[in-house]
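HOLO CASE FILE
Compound: carboxymethyl coenzyme *A
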Amino acid sequence: MTEQNNKKVKIDFGSENVAEMQVLKATIGQDVIDMRSLGKLSGMWSYDPGFLSTAACESKITYIDGDAGHLFYRGYPIEQLAEHSTHLEGAYLLLNGELPTKEQKLEFETSVIRHTMLHDQILSVFKGFRRDAHPMSMVTGVVGALAAFYPDAFDFKSEAERKITTIRLIAKMPTVTALCYRYTHGLPFMSPKNKLSYAENFLHMMFATPCEEYVVNPIIAKAFDRILLLHADHEQNASTSAVRLAGSSGTHPFSAIAAGVACLWGPAHGGANEAVLKMLGEIGSEANVDSYVAGVKDKKYRLMGFGHRVYKNTDPRAKIMRKTCYEVLDVLGKHDDPLFKLAMKLEKVALSDPYFIEHKLYPNVDFYSGIILRAIGIPVSMFTAVFALARTVGWLAQWQEMITEPDLKISRPRQLYTGYAARDYVPIDKR
Ligand code: CMC
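Model generated. Tokens follow.
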């Protein structure tokens, strides 16, 4: 349990009922008031829809300083990791708490590479989908279906079983994601290739054909790997909380991850990068930016790719993505792409407009990642599936942390009930 300092807060419930609540100390960031005895002491629950002021768990994995605009994986700043590390090294760090040694890195990467293939029958699962099914509906279904192939993963009290489960999911997500694209477009499935890196392998499975070798541009592969690393974890966001909540019942880990995929799909969360591109399409041209922004200020709609629940100053991932965006467009010679120019105009207008400054609305990571993914040739409908592929690492690290807690409790929120009090059933002829 968290180290406690001696600080306590007093809550006066009236009628001389004053309760003392322990303050639990954070290493950095907000301390929390331990509310676990609140119900017993006061006969009331705390009310906090949307978890605006509620810490739902204790965690050692990721820390965000929303005001300063910092993100740390296991204490390492995201900027340093983006510069020097890779998605798989980041995955090892998030899962194990420390950067790997050379030998540990090789062993981890080799294990991931050796588990990229899918059971052949998974292809039959795909064949059950309509060709125009949204990729996220397929990923949700297929990740859930994978549980049927690994019944032993239920034995997650065993460290070895947990380890193989995390390797399997990290390894198979690129294959599942690429298959969604191939299935939608009626393209033959390209088997993973062990000689390729994680990012290269995904791009190969997406874009290679049986007719010719697909050579991955190293700058594109690096940019894609960086997108994965930057999206790998983000502490207790909605989809991670969904994974923790589903997993707290002791469900199959693949099912818990499927819950995360389902939650990520929403436009307020992982669906934002897709929504950014749709929005740019709706705006249509640079000439329409000002009138579109006026509509945002009139609260007719939101500017997608702007704002964040936690970052109220700057999203550090966005800074890195912006730079990467320019690198990718350079290498592809796409700086004059009208959509990119439109996005840059929108960015400029929004960043200088008092409404956005007052509301602390800055471009978030998804504003730029969508532009990069599109430039690489990944269809817009696949963007959230790519996010899911990246976030699988964080979901697994958080699931593992939660499931190994000694005093784990099933997540079971309370409610403020405002419906009818008890009343008698009315027979149908009397209604
Ligand atoms: N465009 C215009 N106004 C906005 C926006 C936006 N994108 N986001 C927030 N606001 C305004 C909102 O209208 C409200 O104004 P007022 O106080 O005048 O009523 C104020 O800012 C606070 O809004 P909120 O909904 O209470 O803020 P939140 O912290 O709950 O919302 C958010 C966070 C990410 C859901 C929201 O900013 C949003 O909808 N952004 C667009 C979607 C998006 O880009 N999501 C991706 C987030 S990054 C990926 C990830 O980490 O999941």
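CASE NOTES: The mean pLDDT is 93. Residues 234, 237, 268-269, 272, 296, 299, 302-309, 359, 361, 364-366 surround carboxymethyl coenzyme *A (CB under 6 Å).
CLOSED: yes
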